[in-house]
Amino acid sequence: MPNPHISDRQVMRYMASRSQHHNQAAAAAMAGISERSARRIDKDPRFPSQKKQPRTWRTRPDPLETVWPRVLEMLKIPGIMAVTIFEELQDELGAEVLPDSVRRTLERRIAKWRALHGADKEVFFPQRHDPGRQALSDFTVADSLGVTIVGEPLPHRLYHFRLAFSGWEHAQVILGGESFSAVAEGLQDALWKLGGVPEEHRTDSLSAAFKNLDRDAQLDFTKRYDELCRHYGMKATRNNPGVANENGSIEAANGHIKIRLDQRLRRRESRDFVSLEAYRAFVDGVCSRYNARCATLVAIEREKLEPLPKRRTTDFATVTVKATRNSTINVDRVIYSVPSRLIGHMIEVHLFDDRLECFLGPDPVMRMARVRTDGKRAHSINYRHLIGSLRRKPQALRYLVYQEALFPSAPYARSWAALDAGLAPRHACRTMVGLLVLAASGEACETALAARLDAILDAGLLPDLGELKKEFQTAPHQSRDVTIPPPNLDDYNLLLPSACEVRP
């Protein structure tokens, strides 16, 4: 029985032993070969793999011999896939001539042909990242994390900022889309938390932020973004549309931060948070732990950063609207209620990603959460703004356009449905408005009254406004008449200096 063939590794071991001044017999024993094989290696030191002659014959007929000219014709089409060629050939010739078992052979043959005769491929050039030179920003959808706020799903994005050299990162929860306010607020929060400014800030083409914007709005967005970078002394750069690898230092990191968040949520054993602020603090904590692990590189990079300006710049969009006679304003296709005293006035609205801040001239008048819609009109109504007028006109409740948005919570909506079905229309409206007036007496009263309404409705009863007023309405403070007797003026004479003299 012949011995197994000598391998390249055995030849390398033999030659290494010979270079260490071992004789031929000893080196052959160390490599596990015979002395005769050692003599052949000394005469011809090539590896066994280099001595093999390429096989020039086939062991079976070529299944692609007849179709290969047709394949070469189709390979002239730019970007055509091997599986497409195979399916076209099957349609032309039939599965009997070209069975499915030949598909993998065709794919290997095409891959080899393209390597030998195909077009040049795009080359990716690795880049050097100098400390303090470049920061990158991007948005990434984080719905896959499955986060909920008090049981309600939270669809959101993350604004992700990262330094290319050290990897220092900042993530901010974004409730809306890729807007200028989201970019400005997230970028400035990151820079002030970092404590310095890099030379360059790189983003993608911001095409998502341009969605549904006309050309003038797109130019305005670009101008404001450039002004933002100029305020911090950064050079604003963008990668080419659709070329994600040009923003590679942040694109890959988007997936990494979501993996870290997912793992921390698994360790937390709950994806539900008591508030949006609690979730934002959780995200900040995950970023802080990651930044602590690259503290050495961050310290090197901070020395190269430029100083921050004296103040932040605008990180919101400004909209000027008029408060209508309905006591509402229309902002970004959403109807918001405002106090009725503002009717007829021009309101300047600072539009942030998650909130609206309203001003009458320089004076702040109110702040409210921003409502997001999918291109449809929506309402955000605070019944406290309207309850004074509604109390005088309770019948307006029945056909109110934003009736559903008026109720502060589900128990109040249930109560209206029950009252409307069980009482006369006028009496139902008066009772429901009375309940809202009672709820408006305080935040604690609104919550407690909602729980009481749920209990009444679960028992199959209708709310009794009179009984609920006795239970929840705070009794007015009754002042008592206090009688103060007039002072005795003779007592003041005792305080005169003459009265205080000591007489013998």
Describe the model:
The chain has a five-stranded mixed beta sheet with strand order 5-4-1-6-7, sandwiched between helices. A four-stranded antiparallel beta sheet has the order 9-12-13-14, with no helix packed on it. Strands 3-2-8 form a three-stranded mixed beta sheet. The chain folds into five domains: about 10-50; about 70-115, no CATH class; about 135-300, 2-Layer Sandwich (Nucleotidyltransferase, domain 5), CATH 3.30.420; about 315-380, no CATH class; about 385-470, no CATH class. The protein is built from 20 helices and 15 strands. Strand 6, helix 9 (about 215-230) and strand 7 form a beta-alpha-beta unit. It is elongated, with a radius of gyration of 40 Å. About 45% of the residues lie in helices and about 15% in strands. It has helices spanning about 10-20, 25-30, 35-45, 50, 70-75, 80-95, 105-115, 180-195, 215-230, 250-270, 275-295, 295-300, 385-390, 405, 410-420, 425-440, 445-460, 465-470, 490-495, 495-500, and strands at about 135-140, 150, 150-155, 155-165, 170-175, 200-205, 235-240, 270-275, 315-320, 330, 335, 345-350, 355-360, 365-370, 380. The chain is α/β, with parallel strands linked by helices.
Keywords, please?
Nucleotidyltransferase, domain 5, single chain, alpha/beta, five-stranded mixed β-sheet, four-stranded antiparallel β-sheet, 504 residues
Describe the protein's topology.
Elements: H1 8-19, H2 24-31, H3 35-43, H4 48-51, H5 68-74, H6 82-93, H7 103-117, E1 134-141, E2 148-149, E3 152-153, E4 157-163, E5 169-174, H8 180-194, E6 200-203, H9 215-231, E7 235-238, H10 248-268, E8 272-273, H11 276-293, H12 295-302, E9 317-322, E10 328-331, E11 334-337, E12 346-351, E13 355-360, E14 363-369, E15 378-380, H13 383-392, H14 403-406, H15 410-422, H16 425-439, H17 443-458, H18 465-472, H19 490-493, H20 497-500
Parallel strand pairs: 1-6, 2-8, 6-7, 11-15
Antiparallel strand pairs: 1-4, 2-3, 4-5, 9-12, 10-11, 12-13, 13-14
Helix pairs in contact: 1-2, 2-3, 13-16, 15-16, 15-17, 16-18
